[in-house]
UniProtKB/TrEMBL annotation:
One of its GO terms (molecular function) is class I DNA-(apurinic or apyrimidinic site) endonuclease activity. Pfam families: EndIII_4Fe-2S (PF10576), HHH (PF00633), HhH-GPD (PF00730). SUPFAM superfamilies: DNA-glycosylase. InterPro entries: DNA_glycosylase, Endonuclease-III-like_CS2, Endonuclease3_FeS-loop_motif, Endouclease-III_FeS-bd_BS, HhH-GPD_domain, HhH_base_excis_C, HhH_motif, Nth. It catalyses: 2'-deoxyribonucleotide-(2'-deoxyribose 5'-phosphate)-2'-deoxyribonucleotide-DNA = a 3'-end 2'-deoxyribonucleotide-(2,3-dehydro-2,3-deoxyribose 5'-phosphate)-DNA + a 5'-end 5'-phospho-2'-deoxyribonucleoside-DNA + H(+). Residues 92-239 form the HhH-GPD domain. This is Endonuclease III. Keywords: 4Fe-4S, DNA damage, DNA repair, DNA-binding, Endonuclease, Glycosidase, Hydrolase, Iron, Iron-sulfur, Lyase, Metal-binding, Nuclease. GO terms for biological process: base-excision repair, AP site formation. [4Fe-4S] cluster binds at residues 241, 248, 251, 257. Belongs to the Nth/MutY family.
Amino acid sequence: MGEQSSGDGRKTGKTAKKVTPAKKAVATGKPVAVKKAASAKKVAVRPSADESRTALVRRARRINRELAEVYPYAHPELDFENPFQLLVATVLSAQTTDLRVNQTTPALFAKYPTPEDLAAANPEEVEEILRPCGFFRAKTKSVLGLSKALTEDFGGEVPGRLEDLVKLPGVGRKTAFVVLGNAFGRPGITVDTHFQRLVRRWKWTEETDPDKIEAVVGALFPKSDWTDLSHHVIWHGRRICHARKPACGACPIAPLCPAYGEGETDPEKAKKLLKYEKGGFPGQRLKPPQAYLDAGGKPAPPLGAA
């Protein structure tokens, strides 16, 4: 498990309508009821050598608050109308873009609208529909398998428990938490490639295993924040903090990022790197990039500031 740290730093060892609670919360402004979700195995949170646990928690939560203002309507970018469609779409999204999935699923759900329909489908016909998503044979096997399991074991309904979801073919913790958080209003952290990249850049954790990342990051936030946190981080990763060339000079959380400078810091050049995806880029709140830097061109205020 390695050494842990005490609080003082000493080492001690949308195009489709979504009929979901999360969507209703956006439309009505009413909070979604939060229910318990199973957590991953516990992993010690290890702040960096120059940052106490308390400072890490404050910085992490401040980043989330900042991102919540930048992306107030962050949500799953997969089109769905019910839990079954979200489950299938999330499985299909592996190794491809949400846009590609959204272009593919309308034909799939028009022909096979229920788990019973998809379970009885001809595999070759499903493969032809899913071909644009890549890995279409494996994905066909997964969606047919999970549809059969839903039909035989759950009465054709998507279960609302993590332990049941992860037993379905092609469904892991990441997919399960997408469904739980957005179809059932139950908190969960979605550790996709964007989430992994950003939390490591922000020095929230040095873990590389998704389950360990989930546990470490989950310990920094109350459970009620987990689902929205996932959306905020993923949206930021898709729009600004890219894998190869992050737009550091246009980033609203530059003062809080230990990795500032890994990408383009020139404000004008950074603006050209911003990606506008479905849902747009809510840039009205963004300050001029130079406002996040001190006279020497470095992030200000100091990292860990409250």
